[in-house]
Write a structure and sequence with these properties.
By secondary structure, the protein is α/β, with parallel strands linked by helices. Helix content is 42%, strand content 14%. The protein contains nine helices and eight strands. The longest helix has 16 residues.
Length: 226
Amino acid sequence: MHCHVLPNIDDGAKDPEMSVEMLKQYTELGYIGLIATPHIMKGFYDNTADGITEAFDMFSSNIKRKSFGDFSISVAAEYMMDSGFDILISKKELLPINHNKVLVEMSYLQPSLRPFEQLFELRQHGFEPILAHPERYLYLTDVSRVLAFKKKGCSLQLNLLSLGGHYGKQATQQAISLLKDGHYDYVGTDAHHPGHFSVLKRIELPKKTMPFFEALIMKTKENLDN
């Protein structure tokens, strides 16, 4: 429910061939579908809902010709909580994940200027925010600061790459802590290229952590079905 597989639209797959390779890797891991979530970030990835939808339609047609017809693919977006996001909220020009759920992110080094106001506005317009990879934000190492987002009605999404140590020891420790305490609502890969799958394949969790991980997988499915 969080990946960057659409070609040549953000910092994810660079071309259709890379996208196809990523789909092959997903199927090898047992996935039966995905939700593509390209970045929308003012000044960096100035994508629009219409532009992403057009790119997705072309991508889907290409995939069907390559024997991925049974693989379920849909599209949404990952929104940076910047000044451009305010405009999109007011116009309701958003690509949600499954009905009204909107995937959002912040800078890893410093918080957005007014995140809670933006989350409030998002909810006022009938959307449910999901904060991507809270374990990666350097200024949210205190769990109470992470939970402040939950108190504002924001769900939390774990990056599987964090469990594989891809973002460093601190992110891994925070991810396991949040996982064991049941604070996550969703899990996604956030894969950007085929190399990320080698990280996913080497993830090893302690036996005592597996029940929490399995519960999160089921919770993700239930939340996406609702």
